[in-house]
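Example record

One chain of 247 residues, shown exactly as stored in the release files.
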Amino acid sequence: MTLAITLQAAAATAATWTTDPAHAADTKYRALFDSIDEGFCVIEVLFDAQERPVDYRFIEVNPSFERQTGLSDAVGRRMRELAPAHEEHWFRIYGEVALGGQSVRFENRAEALHRWYDVYAFRVGDPAQIKLMGYSHIPQRHASAINAFYSQLFNPYLNFHRPCYFAVDRVDAKGKVRKTYPHDQIMTPWERLQTLSDYPNHLKPGITVQTLEHQAGSMSDNDAALRVQKARKRLFQSINRRSKLAA
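Predicted structure tokens for this chain:
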């Protein structure tokens, strides 16, 4: 399985053309790969016997990657080797994209790297491999605005309005338990929670079923998605303005 991240900006570069189409394509790719502003990498996600993501290995990185992450000589090395304290959510997110095949965009902090990142990950290529590309650094001074966006808008959207795959364990012919992602298990986290007979007992103190039902029904999925998109656009316009003023 292969994962990739689209890039927000790229500098125009000249490529050396040859009569060999394969070499020309590779030359153009390398010129773009080396010149884009955002960090860009290819990784192989590593799983344990239960198909849980436990680490990932860097296959390829561009020059901006080291500047954005501070990781030197990363190619061929594992993330846990470079940053042993790297949070579990990074491995979990990349593993879910790899296994489920669903692209994902998110902003999150890497405490071990002391930075926030804006990442877009998607799977491409040979299912025998898993790769990932790209990082865009978000300075710490924007953390409060990003946290507010997540807690007030993005997290409610994910919980109540964005369907996703939920894994189902299947035993194969060799007796090995494998995770599958059937289409009948596509639902929102709120819908998934409601499949549990005792789900009210799992709610945090102060949160009621009525409150969640009201929040889920307050707008359509499309309206919720549009609201998040507009809010995200405003957020990053504000970040860009503040970054220019601070430069």
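Notes: Residues 221-246 form the longest helix (26 residues).
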